[in-house]
Amino acid sequence: MVFELPPLPFEKNALEPYISAETIEYHYGKHHQTYVTTLNKLTEGKPEEKKTLAEIIMSAEGPLSTTPPRSGTTAFTGRA
Length: 80
Prior knowledge:
Elements: H1 21-43, H2 53-59
């Protein structure tokens, strides 16, 4: 499965004056696109290549985080 960055459900300037179109483009168009591109590179030629993102996440093994949470934040532990 080739992962793609879906289009935003709003125009890039829809959040102005609070968030500029330039900020949206940089954050979504550059950062998020890099995450998707990296995911495609990491799964290429591997069994995960045929899985959905949800399937990859659900089948992942190992600790959720090796870094303790910052003060004042909570960490997901998987426990109710």
